[in-house]
Write a structure and sequence with these properties.
Layout: E1 8-12, H1 19-30, E2 33-35, H2 45-50, H3 52-76, E3 84-86, H4 93-100, H5 103-117, E4 125-130, H6 133-143, H7 153-169, E5 175-179, H8 189-200, E6 206-210
């Protein structure tokens, strides 16, 4: 079983890459507790996509305080001592801040973030899903969440690059990097079984799964 090795698993990646779908699949397979992002609960997010310069800071701070409160509650309940799957990594919050805030706002944000980050438990494993910006654009358009419609192609491209740079340096937990371009974990049992097999066989701090198209 996957959770013989990893009790707290995080699935990460840019918007549209399929992290929530995979997190649900993993949690159902392993009978794990779930922890999901709640973008619809952030009242600033739709306004951010309409006017990023004006609403980036309140959007970012809302997410930061929302997530730290969830982490505090989970730590108090000792939930990370049982099997848990999440579709977000707390540390990646800083990635979005660097991407969207101006320098003065980012300095303010960093002061708050660094005072809170020590309260957050680190995951046992991070599954980082990658996809080309064109694929992310198509997936975001297909699911058509109303607050995501204003997202520009250029923003998704910058976000994909920011994720790549973030995980190039990330070493706080083992990372399993997956090119999801030709994989459908939610609907294809063979793809999901392949992922499970590779996760069970993982030995090093960083490994890769890259399946080419037919």
């Amino acid at each position: 079983m996957l959770f013989d090795k990893y009790r707290y698993v995080v699935v990460e990646g840019p918007i549209g890459v399929g992290k929530t779908s995979l997190a649900r699949k993993l949690a159902a397979y392993c009978a794990a507790t779930t922890l999901f992002e709640k973008p619809e609960a952030n009242p600033f997010l739709p306004r951010f996509y309409q006017d990023p310069a004006r609403y980036a800071l309140p959007t970012q701070l809302f997410f930061l305080f929302q997530r730290i409160e969830e982490m505090r509650q989970l730590a108090q309940q000792k939930l990370f001592q049982v099997n848990t799957v999440s579709d977000y990594l707390f540390a990646k919050d800083e990635l979005f801040a660097r991407l969207n805030l101006n320098d003065d706002e980012f300095m303010l944000y960093q002061n708050v973030f660094r005072n809170l980050a020590g309260q957050v438990p680190k995951p046992d494993l991070v599954i980082y899903l990658q996809a080309a910006p064109e694929t992310l654009i198509e997936r975001v358009q297909r699911r058509a969440n109303s607050y995501e419609r204003p997202i520009s192609d250029a923003y998704l491209g910058r976000l994909a690059q920011a994720y790549s740079e973030f995980f190039y340096h990330y070493d706080a937990a083992p990372v399993f990097v997956v090119n999801s371009e030709h994989l459908n974990f939610a609907d294809n049992p063979d793809d999901f079984a392949l992922l499970l097999d590779r996760l069970r066989a993982m030995r090093g701090p960083r490994e890769f799964l890259n399946v080419s198209g037919s």
